[in-house]
Structure formats: C-alpha cells, structure tokens
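To: structure desk
From: M.T.
Subject: fold request, one chain
Message: Could you run this one when you get a chance? Sequence is below, nothing fancy, just the single chain.
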Amino acid sequence: MVLIYSDEKNLSLEMLSKGRELADELGKELTVAIIDGGDSDIEEYIRRGADKVFAVDVDLDNFKVEEYAQILSKIVEKTGAETVLIGSNKDGKELAPRLASILDADCVTDCTGLYMEGDSLVTERIIYSGNAISVSAFTGSPRVVTIPSKLFDPLLEDDSRSGEVIREEVEFDPFPSQITNVQQMECEGVNVEDAASIVSCGRGFKNKEDIKLAEELAELLPGEAIGCSRPVSADLKWLSEDHWVGLSGHKVKPKLYVAIGISGQIQHIAGMRDSDIVVAINKDPDALIFKAADYGIVGDLYQVLPKLADAIKEKKG
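Reply: Done. Structure tokens follow.
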C-alpha cells in the first residue's frame, strides 16, 4: 500500500498524483491519512485518486512531532503501508525522519523524482545547491519519502470514483514538551507560492524605491505577486523573506515568471524552474538567467519596464 500524509490539503492532493501512479504500477491501494482533520470535503481525496481515506481525530491543540510521529506510525501499521509519502513543508520535514526512526525505515527527503525500477523505488533529489542530482534506490520497506510542494499537478476530480473512508481512534503517549505560544507570521500581499504571475526583482535594481517599477508591471498581470532573489531579501533587506524565491526561499510554479535584473544563479533557478513561462530582462546578454528563460529581453530595466507596461496597457485597451 502507498500512504500519503500532509497537514496541508493542497500538498496531499499534489502527492496523490504521483501516489496514484506508483500504486497502479505496484498493484497496490492508495490511502490518504488525515490526522485531527476538520476537512468538510473528505471525499475529494477519493475523487482525486485515493482508494481509501484513513481519518484520525485526536485531542491536540497544536502540531507536536513526537505525538504525530506516534500516530502516523500506528496508521502505517494498521494499513500495512510499504511506501509513505509525506509533504515536505515545515512540519513534514520534522515528522518524516522521526517516523522513519520509529518504523526502522529508510528515509529520503525533498525528492524531485520518484519512480520504480523493478522492485526498487528510486528517488532523485537536488543536491549541492542544484549542481547535481542524487539518485537513491530503496531495497526494503517500509520506506519514507518527503515531497516538496508545486512538484506534481493534482489529478482532475472524477465523480465516478468510489472509495472507503475509515475513521478510527489511535492511542498515543502524550509527551511532556509543551508549546507555549504560536504566533501567525504576517504575509505581505499575495503569497508567491500561490500566485499565477510573479514579477521578480534582482540586484539589477539600484535602489529600493525603484522596485515600484516592478510593482506597476505586476499590477497589470492576473494573480500578481512580487518576488525577489536572495540579495534583495537576505542582504539588502529591500523586501521581506515572504518574497524570496530560490533554493532557500520559496519554490514557485506560476503560469508567468518575469525575472528582472536577476543574474540566474542556480540557487534562484531551483526555486522557479517549474514556472510555465519565464521572461528574463537583463542588460547582460550573457546572464545565466537567459538559459532558463522562454523569452529574453536584453536591455536596461529602467528603459524596458516602462515600455513593457505601456505595451500591456495598450494591448488591454
């Protein structure tokens, strides 16, 4: 059996796409685990590819990895899952290795590729800041894998699919550690991970105030958000980390990504490589960003951006 878990529904739906593929190839069932879920549409998981949904209601106010790892290990035992896919978000990164330790299982994190070779599950993950790909093969089970967001597209809903929803109580030992405070991080504007269009700023901008040129362009695009490279956020502090796109920042998958004054180092490319269409604007014709772009404009951004904005306004009438 293939088991999927994430505390983010969208990430679970994305993993269902790959999980369905693996389950079909292995001739196994595909199950989604929900812990402490108040999901009003639990049947959606079945419509999007799951054979079963294993739902556990627990009396926990906040995520505690010690307790969640226990609960998920019990679900693995009850379902007989051989392959466990966990969403690689903040909680998932902490949960997966602890679960693997409890199960005495192998664990590979942040996989960008996942496929079968005979009886072995093979994983691929980016290493050395995107300069190499590590390929590993599991030789036994159970096996635990974490999957980043925006890697797979969810399957379309199929109302004809049928499945089983299992609700059970799972016992666990409370841990003495306590969460004393949870503070919601403030997000500036549109979340770049959800944006349909991203206009991203790099070191080619001379001053913080000049980012207004990018904002004016973004306002002309649907589902817009402002992104940036590492120097703009981490070094210059012109924009918060909410806007940082890259290996150590946010990984995005918009329909349109406009990279302005960004050189195109591999760390940045790793965060936006899955964008549908990439437009690069840079005055250096040899900038690495052009190798990752579908369309490139060689020119001074201070001259290009106003003209590009005017052209879009004219096109929109």
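Reply (cont.): The chain has two domains: 2-167, 197-316. Let me know if you need anything else for the meeting.
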